[in-house]
Each structure stands twice: as structure tokens, then as C-alpha cells.
Amino acid sequence: MMTLQTSLLKQLTPKRLFWRSLLIMLVPMVLLQGVVAYIFFERHWDTVSRRLALGVTGDIIYVMRTIQKYPEDEFREWTLRAAHREMQIDAVFEKGAHLPAEAPRMSNRNVERMLRHALSERLVIPFHIDTRRDDKNISIRIELKEGVLNILTPHKRMFSTTVYIFVLWMVGTALVVMAIAIFFLRNQIQPIRRLATAAEAFGKGRVDVDFKPGGASEIRQAAAAFLDMRERIARHIDQRTEMLAGVSHDLRTPLTRIKLQLAMLRGTNPEARAEVSDLEFDILEMEKMIDEYLAFARGQGGETPVPTDLSALLNEIIASAHKSGAPLRLESEPSLTLPLRPNAIKRCLANLTDNALRYGNKVEVRAQRVGESVEIIVEDDGPGISPESIEDVFKPFFRLDNSRNPNYAGAGLGLAIARDVARGHGGDIILQKSTMGGLRAILRLPI
Predict the structure, then answer these.
(1) pLDDT over threshold 80, residue 431
(2) Is pTM, for the whole model, over 0.85?
């Protein structure tokens, strides 16, 4: 039961910080105003209504007693005119009339209840009250010995303007407080939004976003910590890139010397050509492995994201694959432009297509816009990957094929590099079983 209530509360609670903060401020205010309004209407309104009813009742009783004491027609007419002039009462004496057996239907309004109660305390003779008239008057008919005294008094005599003033002040104050709260909340939440935008841009590799700390001291502290972190990460990436550039140079220099010595050995010793060819093949394999290691360790380097036409980039990759006779087909929307690191994305897409071509005889590539992101789907008709190995293939140096044949196994870094590039752009790569029977790789990139 508690779990259900907690789940329902989470569904009803706003997701955004602005609305949650506004709710925290408004709920106590609304509850307070509700309690005050309840007390006002239960206490003050009953008291005011009773006093107004007693005032109307007093005027009616005075007119009735005067007519009963001075029944002459001349004096009765004078009394009725005075009541109209001084008390806002229109009274007519219906001589010889009687009240109908059925009284007007009583409403549930507090006005009629208070007036009936006040008249019942002062009168022991029959009377009828009708508050449902269309002329905004209250009708009180009292049966006397000589006839029926029919009294009309304005409905407004039973109302107090303090009720409307109270409601106007309460609603007006609530609106003013809400406007002030919304103004200050927006000013406080805006720095959080800027911080989130800067963090999202940095996650996509865009470090050129202009961001300055602002807002409350806690938000400024978080923003300053983010700027320090961004600077440290950027410095670390630069140092790693410089170090790897040096490592690449240091590794390639001895390999170049070995290749030169092997070439000289091939010319001076014809009998050793077979051994030299094997060594050259091993050196070629070593160079490929070094390239993959450095590509993985270097990541996306210092490449800056620029608006890139993804469709054109895919066409280049497909055209290059067609030159080598690869069975690859492309379906893409005409214009898919978004901020990318062209070389990194090209490496990512090349790794995905190479992986599909390595194990499949037929490969299809589709690029399309899906909501706020772009999806590139690469699928093949190869043997696929078992579900328990899907996440393992993204691990560095993991290979489903344990052979060292570079034409098939490689260094086990292709998918690891591809996912690293995708996540560096704020996206990801998902592997699924393809409808073609093999593997489907989905690259999602935010727009």
C-alpha cells in the first residue's frame, strides 16, 4: 500500500525544479489561506449574518407592532410610507387575506436560515419567507388577525461588503506573492540551467561554451567546481595527447629502422627472403596494432566539433567501401547536419561498417532523425553476437575470435573506440539482434 502511495506521489510531483520550488512555496500559503477563510466564514460570517438578520427582523417587528397598535387606515398608511422611507421596507397590508397552506420552498443559503431563526425567536404567529424571488428582494408574509402583512426588503440588507473585501484582499495578496515567487525563482533557477547546459556541452566535447558562475552562493560554488573540473580534464587530455604523440614517434622510429634493415637484408641475402617476408608481415601487424592502441588511448584528441553533414560523411565511407567491392547499401535522409568531430565520427562509423563487413555478406546502413537525435543503424547478416557477450565486446582488447589474424580479429578495440567516440558526443551505441539474422548496431547522436 505504501509503495503504491509513493509511486502515485512521484507521478503527481512535478519533475522540474522550478515547479517543485513553486509548489513548496504555494502549498503552505494556500493551506494558510484556506484555514483563515474557513475560520472567517465559520465565525465572522455567521456572526455578521445573524446581526443583519436581527436588524431586518427588528424593523419588521416594529412595523408589525405599530400597525397592530394603531389599526386605523390613515395611520397604517403613514406607517407603511415611513417604513419605505426610513427602513427600506416596502410593506402592503392585505386586509382579510390568509397565508397559503404550503410555504415557499426553503433554500439552503445561510441568509434564509438566519432570518428564519431570528423571526422564529420574535414571532409566535405564522409567517412565510421567500428568498428565491427574481426581483432581488426578500418577501416576508406575516398573518395577522385582520389580514396578511406582506413585506419586501432588498436582498442586499442581508449581505456585508466585508466578505467581498476579504476575498479580494486574500486573492490579490496570493497573486502578488505568486508573481514575486515566480520572478525570484526564475532568477535563481536560470544559473542552474546555464550550468546544466555547459555541463551537457562539455559532455559532448564542446569546451568553447561561454559560461560564468552566477546565482546563489551554493550555485556559484558548484559552477566554480565545474569550471575547475573542466579545466583539469582539458589539461589532462592535452597532456595525454602530447604524450601519445611522443610515444607514437618513439615506436615508429625503431620500426622504420627494422623495416629498412630488412629491405637491405632482402637485397644482400636472397636465401632469407622467406624469413624477411614473415618479419615484414609481423612488423605490418605491429604497426596496425599500434595505430589501434593509439587511436583508443588518444580518444577524440583536441578536435573541435563543427557543423557536419552526416549524410555526406556516410556517403564518403560507403563510396570508399564500394571501391574495395564491399556489399554495402546506404539509406539516409538528405540533410542531417549537427555539431560533430568529423574525423572521430568517421573513425567510429568506419569501425562499425568494417565490423559488419568482416562477419557479414550483406550490410545495410540507415541514417534518420528520431525526435531530438539522429540514429545511424548498421546491420549485417552474419553470425551475430550472443546476448551475454553484447556488453563484453565494448571492453578494450576483448575479442570473440581469439586468433591473431589481423584480417579478422584485430586488436579488439574497434567497438571500444566507436562507443568512446559516440559517448564523447553525448550519444551511445546499442547492439541488438538484426532482422537480417546478424548484428544490428545503433549509433545515437543528439542534435
Answers:
(1) yes
(2) no
